[in-house]
Design goal:
about 130 residues; mainly alpha
Amino acid sequence: MYPTIPRLASHTRSTLKTPSLGPFSLLLLNLSLTNTPRSPPPPLHLYRRLLRTHRQKLLAELRVLGDEYVKSEFRLHRDIDNSVHIVGFLTEWQLYAQKLEGDAWRGEKLDRGKIEKMSDQQVGQLMYD
């Protein structure tokens, strides 16, 4: 369970100075304070979970590839401002982690709906990488 922030008296709220937080930081704070089953886990926990799952479930060659991809994607999405994009990003990685942990991914084909939502660049990477 995540720690909760105690409520402040209404007269002290106006005197407190809060640091300026970006949208991603505010989303992280919000995600860490809510404990609903539908919300994605905080990014650092998910990042560590993915690397741990790769270590436990993948062969050495695939682990190197998977770890580099996870690190690259999380690095690229570190400064994203769109909260909808952030939630989608974290949700997809959470689903990926769940599939890896459950061995249901072996022999599974990529969903056609997801392929149709991909850009031409993403489809090219999928076909040729």
